[in-house]
Amino acid sequence: xxxxxxxxxxxxxxxxxxxxxxxxRALRARxxxxxxKQLATVLQLPLAQVEGWEEERxxxxxxxxxxxxxxxxxxxxxxxxxxxxxxxxxxxxxx
Length: 95
Hints:
mainly alpha
């Protein structure tokens, strides 16, 4: 284990203990991390980005944080392109 003591449990169990409204300070405490550098390593983000977050505000909803929190981002729904001539096409009858 890189940081702290190795614990038994899955990512799901850890994500259930982490609230989406959790602050950066609370997340570090929950994971047993003492610095932003360690949190940046866990999230695989640049240190400057993690240091830019305020200590007591809710975590930003970026994919790396959401993945740690166990929240699956909604997949973008692909809308088929609209055919402008769709209502103008009619069936042709021949004699």
